[in-house]
Amino acid sequence: MSTRSGANDGAVLRLAPRRARGPVRLRLPRSDATLRMLSLLAFLAAWQIAAAVLQSSALPTPATVFGRVVEETVSLALPAHLGITLMRVAVSFALAMAIGTAIGIAMGRWRSVDVLLDGWLVLGLNIPALVTIILCYVWFGLSDTAAVVAVAVNKIPTVIVTVREGARAIDRRLLQVAQAYRLPRWQTLVRVYLPQLYPWLTAAARSGLSLIWKIVLVVELLGRSDGIGFQLNMFFQFFDIAGILAYTLVFAALVLLVEAVALRPLERRLNHWRS
Amino acid sequence: MLEIDIDRKRYADRGGSPHVALSGLNLQVGDGEFACVVGPSGCGKSTLLNVVGGLDGDVEGRVRLDGEAPGNGVGFMFQEPRLMPWLSVLDNVLLVAGRSAAAKARAVDLLVAMELGDVLQAYPGRLSGGMQRRVALARAFVIEPKLLLMDEPFVSLDVPTANRLRAMLVELWQRCRSTVLFVTHDLREALALGDRVCFLSGAPGRVVLDLAVTLPRPRAADGTAVLELQARLLAQHPGLLAGLASGNGCAPGRDDG
Fold it and tell me: Residue B167, SS3?
């Protein structure tokens, strides 16, 4: 990639990168898992070095933070708050995906619906998350319902945009096959229509999850008395950086885990036929 | 008995102006009969099949199969194979056949008989064009259709592959005794396959000649019997076939045998 300059001859261009890479290539096991592990270790090392150099209470060492993780876990505070937050994430994620998919399909399929809702969609995409959160708390009270609705409302427009793109790209000719053979509606939906949407649905799910994690914390910080977001606010008040990092770390690890054991395998299974 | 009475079929073309595709088209096809419909491109052949197959309900007229609107038991083979790329070969066939053990046995038997036994679990994207058509043909026959609609299903295939598929089609049809409505612009294909060939006029399409084909089976699309009949027909109805020949490059009058 970097050998383009100076080499005008096609043959040289093709050969040069291979030669250049030869001597510096590391002889490592090339599996993805190893690379991921290496990148994680590099991160921890950088953190440790920075903390050792700075010697500041604003950046505790990894060991201190892990100590806090154990402490908070043993006292059951972390699992309790984590559970509540996860619940909110799950509910608002399911809500946003279901509503967003339904509206997205309708907008992709019927032009009149698209024209009718397009203005609202643009509005929805551009309202700051903070505004919807504040309004939901004002209108529905400081409740879990308001929290979940606020998160879902933030996410629904982006799901709609993605799914609408997919619904526009639906191959009508395949639907005609279902129609010609008189497949029942349900079977047409599940076996002919939705499989065409899977790439868009998985994309919406992945980007959706990463957005929802973040908004849920803000919602909790602003108006709930439990959950990770609430705890982070508490730690902030007491300038407890180790606490903040401990909760963040556990939370981030969980997100990675969900990605790795749920979303990525699901995506691979759904798109198996493409390989 | 399939009865088609289309008074008028209109649709808006790309510019939005109305276009009459079919007009005064009456056609009866007996049970188990293989009827071919030949006409120039754009004369409404595909539209006719879409109307008969229930894909297009916006029509003045009616279609009756044994006195009722066609419902279950209609097979449809399109110009393209139109297989679901995310379903295996077997699942594509089972999609229309149902999930019962009997349906599965029938599907497997059919696919094996069509020399697709090795690719039952393969995805259609890995198959050649000819194999994909065979899967589509199996899908059409697995429901043991009372009526089979075929919209130029063997276009853009090389000659030996197309001939092989035609032979398979005739064999399956003779076993299943389905009523077949087969649309094509290739006169020799129609003469090789049909008990009967109906010629459509240019748009708006209607039947201008209804010809019974009594040549003994099996017939080859490039066999002498078919070629002679085609030559005779050309001599008898030059006007009709001039209309056909103006359609496109696959004019029936051309001599490449």
Answer: helix
